[in-house]
Design brief:
Elements: H1 3-7, H2 12-21, H3 28-39, E1 44-47, H4 54-65, E2 75-78, H5 82-95, E3 103-106, H6 112-121, E4 125-128, H7 130-139, E5 149-152, H8 155-160, H9 164-173, E6 179-184, H10 189-198, E7 203-206, E8 216-222, H11 228-238, E9 244-247, H12 251-263, E10 268-271, H13 277-288, E11 294-297, E12 312-315, H14 322-329, E13 339-345, H15 350-360, E14 365-366, H16 372-391, H17 400-407, H18 412-424, E15 446-451, H19 461-472, E16 480-484, E17 489-494, H20 495-509, E18 516-518
Parallel strand pairs: 1-6, 1-7, 2-4, 2-5, 3-4, 5-6, 8-13, 8-14, 9-11, 9-12, 10-11, 12-13
Antiparallel strand pairs: 15-17, 15-18, 16-17
Helix pairs in contact: 3-4, 4-5, 7-9, 14-15, 15-20
Length: 528
């Protein structure tokens, strides 16, 4: 059953722990990282998306490598959020088997006195957020000069959240005789700089391809902004056993959507940066226990949520960048289960959708929102099944006498019809749903691009078109309305080609300002 894990070189103790957890086959990142961790002394860089099993990829061999009853901290694992700190600590604790290792999570928002007591008792593995770890280092309540391993998990997210300088400060506290492992879903230049500066002779282990969402169906619906909430309720109502995470861009949107869903009777909570740690833990606990089936969140607030059986991830708002889309949808289709990623696209967002399609290298299929008749039909099937299941159980006998009393003077069909009306009248009424207007997205529209070269750079329309063709590989015939001015130029291209050109020039320019950008609507900004 665990042949794949056994072939990676794991011990019997660890294999027993995997059996208890129900693991069967290693994931791709586990197959790549575990043998290298166990059988070499290289520093390692692992590139993998959320939900690929990367915690076990470093946690399993780490447990094998560490000694029992050490007198000092052996490993420091840095993570971007409180939730992820708890999650990683719990995961490694469950993987250690019978081996005596003490693992603790330290993070802001938790009593520092409690953390101090745990650290004084002796800890083998510390999992912490950069701010709180740095605080303990400055207090000298945590010493990492003798650690054998340092692991940076979700490094790109620590960069996004502004923790990268703290990470460097923490690295300065550590000794030289340690092994460094860095895990990141994406590899921006700043993360690569970090690897080169603090890691020696490191090996890179990346998953094949850019996505790990083969079990995720990706679809999108074209809706106007004002119809998004109505579209969301239709999706929730049409799916039996909906259990989903709804992503919004701002805290205001989270509050607005969660409040409106709650007003309509849905079991929902909202999660964003203004929520206290106590509230956060309460909300996540209710969601994991399925006491609520809808969680509305911002990207940052959703970090560290590790739930393997989500049926849906819904992009109520498109993310700011394509990479974040990958993070979002990686939360469904986990643990061998199928999931669905749904994106709402308004008429002015098609360019962003095109960029996402290219990054994911997969089709995001356009579908039509379920109609009211379709939803009500789905609800009737669910209600019928629930009634039939209940009728076949002993619980149904509780009100048998009352039922016979009701039926004594009524036709059975009329009685059942009246009960359905009494119990589900509003739910089965077409009037519960507002009309959703059809929208038309111009997929063949054009974009105007600004080029920071003009006549003073000896640029002419043919030279400009040739340069763009050579760098971006875009068909010259698709570059229209070329306007070369003294210090800059403009071109017009289709949406799809515009995204290709912008990405190509961004990559070609490195960290400097790109030569080609989307033209601003206010043309007075550009002066001759």
């Amino acid at each position: 059953m665990l042949k794949g894990f056994k072939e990676l070189g794991l011990s019997e103790n660890t294999l027993k722990a995997l059996v208890r957890k129900g693991f069967e086959e290693p994931t791709e990142i586990q197959e790549r990282i575990i043998p290298l961790f166990l059988n070499s002394s290289h520093d390692l860089v692992g590139q993998a998306q959320t939900g690929t099993g990367k915690t076990a990829a470093f946690g399993l061999p780490l447990v094998e490598k560490l000694t029992q009853d050490s007198l000092s901290v052996q490993t420091l694992i840095l993570v971007p959020t409180r939730e992820l700190a708890v999650q990683v600590a719990e995961e490694i604790n469950s993987l250690k088997g019978d081996k005596h290792l003490v693992i603790t999570a330290i993070y802001g928002g938790q009593s520092i006195d409690q953390q101090l007591r745990r650290l004084r008792k002796g800890v083998d593995i510390v999992v912490g957020t950069p701010g709180r770890v740095k605080d303990h280092l400055q207090r000298k309540s945590l010493k990492i000069d003798k650690i054998s391993h340092m692991i940076l998990d979700e490094a790109d997210e620590m960069l996004n959240m502004g923790f990268i300088d703290d990470v460097e400060d923490i690295l300065a506290y550590s000794g030289k005789n340690k092994r460094v492992l860095l895990f990141s879903a994406t590899m921006p230049a700043r993360i690569l700089e970090l690897a080169k500066k603090y890691m020696t002779d490191y090996k890179v282990c990346a998953q094949k391809g850019e996505l790990t969402v083969s079990l995720t169906e990706q679809i999108y619906f074209e809706v106007s902004y004002s119809d998004k909430l109505e579209a969301l309720t239709r999706i929730i109502d049409s799916e039996v056993g909906f259990y989903g995470l709804i992503f919004c861009r701002t805290k205001i949107d989270v509050d607005d959507v969660s409040r409106k869903l709650s007003d309509r009777g849905y079991d929902v909570e909202g999660l964003h940066g203004d929520i206290s740690q106590h509230q956060r833990e309460r909300i996540l606990g209710r969601f994991k226990q399925k006491r609520i089936n809808v969680l509305v969140a911002t990207d940052v607030a959703a970090r560290g949520i590790d739930i393997n059986n989500l049926s849906h991830v819904i992009n109520y708002s498109l993310p700011q960048d394509p990479e974040r889309y990958v993070h979002r949808i990686g939360r469904t289709g986990r643990a061998g289960k199928e999931g669905t990623a749904i994106t709402f696209v308004t008429p002015d967002e098609y360019r962003k959708l095109s960029a996402i399609k290219r990054l994911t290298k997969t089709d995001i299929l356009k579908k039509k929102l379920p109609g009211v008749d379709e939803i009500i039909s789905s609800k009737k099937i669910r209600i019928k099944k629930e009634i039939v299941d209940l009728a076949s159980s002993a619980e149904s006998n509780e009100y048998l006498g009352f039922a016979e009393e009701i039926l004594s003077g009524l036709d059975p069909a009329q009685a059942v019809s009246a009960l359905i009306k009494y119990s589900f009248g509003d739910e089965l009424s077409p009037r519960s749903y507002a009309k959703i207007r059809d929208v038309s997205i111009d997929t063949k529209g054009t974009s105007r691009l600004f080029v920071a070269k003009g006549k003073i750079d000896k640029m002419s329309p043919p030279k400009l078109v040739s340069m763009i063709n050579q760098i971006a590989g875009v068909d010259s015939r698709k570059i229209r309305d070329v306007q070369v001015l003294d210090k800059f130029s403009f071109i017009t291209v289709p949406f799809e080609e515009a995204e290709i050109i912008l990405r190509a020039f961004k990559e070609n320019r490195g960290s400097r300002k790109p030569l080609v950008e989307r033209a601003k609507e206010n043309k007075r900004k550009y002066r001759r």
